Amino acid sequence: MKPILISTSKHLLCAALLAISTSLSAQTATTDSGLVQKFGNKAYEWGKMLPEQVEILKLSGDVARGKEAFRGCRGCHKADAGGLLDGTYPRLTGQHASVVIKQVTEVRAGIRANPKMAPFSSDHAVTPQEIADIAVYVEQLTTARENGKGPGTMLARGKALYEQGKCAECHGERGEGKALNAYPVVAAQHYEYLRRELDHIQKGIRGNSHPKMVKAIERYTREDMEAVSDYMSRMPDYRLTSR
Ligand code: HEC
Ligand code: HEC
Hints:
The protein is mainly alpha-helical. It has helices spanning 10-30, 33-37, 51-57, 63-69, 71-77, 97-108, 128-139, 155-164, 168-171, 191-203, 211-216, 222-233; strands spanning 2-3, 60-61. It folds into two domains: 4-139, Cytochrome c-like domain (Cytochrome Bc1 Complex, Chain D, domain 2), CATH 1.10.760; 155-240, Cytochrome c-like domain (Cytochrome Bc1 Complex, Chain D, domain 2, Orthogonal Bundle).
């Protein structure tokens, strides 16, 4: 049995819950109503946990069971969970369990728009325990396949945007994200997926974006999105780089 969030103690799970709800109170204090409207879902408050998320984060995931349960995901995310090079399906390998849980439960709750995946992540398809199992399973996986990269022509601009936009405060210098806050890993993700998410987050159609994330890219042009996505897609798997 493997507790969620890489840790070996249940206490860290509680810390994760706390970290998320603390960032919520900090959040609501600074969120102005103009920003809230940009989420695409006015009722969405980032960091406010759904009852099901609280339930799942209290469970321990099991890697072997997760491998079994992942059968229902392989049609799109592929057997190695590496997704598709063209970004249609994101890589899930190395993504924090907390992020996987947040995203799957929010798709299932109809908060994050993802019509393709909805039937496969519904209550009929996977149980809360299976979501916990899948989350710890994909988190520890690596894929031997290359990820999709951009054209490589605007990398200096991408790096500058990543640094000036304070992206590293949440996604890390090496794109490693932050498990305790459910901030996603962006390193070695497929370029086209990153670019599409930035576009959806900016347009407010993703449904579940952090208000500061929305603000960080509100003035981005299409080229800015391409440049920063290319830069992120070329960050190696964060588990292979040292701090
Ligand atoms: C029919 C295809 C399909 C199936 C089956 C599917 N997914 Fe997905 N999944 C997608 C698509 C498409 C996206 C990206 C959506 C977008 O562009 O925002 C996605 C996104 C995700 C994400 C978000 C990743 C991120 O970085 O935010 C997670 C996590 C995920 N899927 C997990 C799962 C799990 C677990 C299963 C099985 C229970 C599953 N998916 C089954 C199509 C699928
Ligand atoms: C305050 C923290 C924060 C900052 C700053 C931030 N992000 Fe994010 N970002 C998030 C969170 C949280 C998500 C996931 C949203 C969700 O579903 O809850 C996200 C999602 C993303 C995604 C989609 C990843 C995926 O797996 O679906 C990309 C790409 C991204 N951010 C890039 C950036 C870039 C580039 C910057 C800087 C310009 C940036 N972010 C700044 C918190 C942040």
